[in-house]
What we know:
By secondary structure, the protein is an alpha+beta fold. The chain has helices at 4-19, 86-100, 103-113, 127-134, 141-152, 157-175, 180-195, 198-208, 214-221, 226-236, 256-262; strands at 26-27, 33-40, 43-50, 55-62, 72-78, 253-254.
Amino acid sequence: MDFKAFDLIVEKLTPALLAQEFEAPTPYEVENGKAMVFLSGNLAYGVFYDVKTKRFDLKSTTMEEGKDPKWRSLSTFMYDPEEDTTSDAESIANDFLETVEGPKRVELVRQNKKRTKKDDGTLNADPQFLFNRLMGVFPELREEMAEERIHYGRIRFFTFAKEKIAPKVENLALHYADSEPFEKMCTVLNDMYANADMDARSIITMAILNGIDDQAFANIKEKLSEDLGKVYKFGRGFRGKKVKPEKKKKSKKVVARSLNEMK
């Protein structure tokens, strides 16, 4: 069987789940079809396709040592590769993406991965700490953050990084790639990614690095740490693309509970 639709769905989910500190997808053995699993601690998401029922499932479970996982379906779609199109597969991918990026699911992952201290007793870096470190490269951030707090009552971390920090990073990478500030900026990004919480990591990858143009990124790419470079290569391909276009054929969605009850 051709699993192009399956691969498309997994490819679309990968950057979003890597940003939430899930590991890269790995094959998962199933009897009738194909499955890939994303793991973060003991929490897992799985994309399953059953060739007999012609059904895609996005599932989740909590892994327990010595026990078979009890998968719970979060979203289900029928998909017949002989009749349905790439657009149908993209619609399924977007629905699955919307599910894993929903506030309740993100909070569940956050609670599952929540760590107050690392093994050495130091705290993980949050977005504010990341911005404070970047002030050593871009001193004007101090005043811009103060204006942000005055105007909005808080710092909108992701938006602020995309609108204020990414252009500064791009300019430095484009015009001063041989400078000491450029080296310092790259060191900050690598160090912060290695010691950051989920929010700060997402800001580094999806707001800052995805917010710069190709030439600037090419200059930075050689300076990225192995961990940051490995994770970010999945996200760069989605720069400038709509990851949640209008969904199609909503009538084809199947309520998981109803399907389970019919078994």
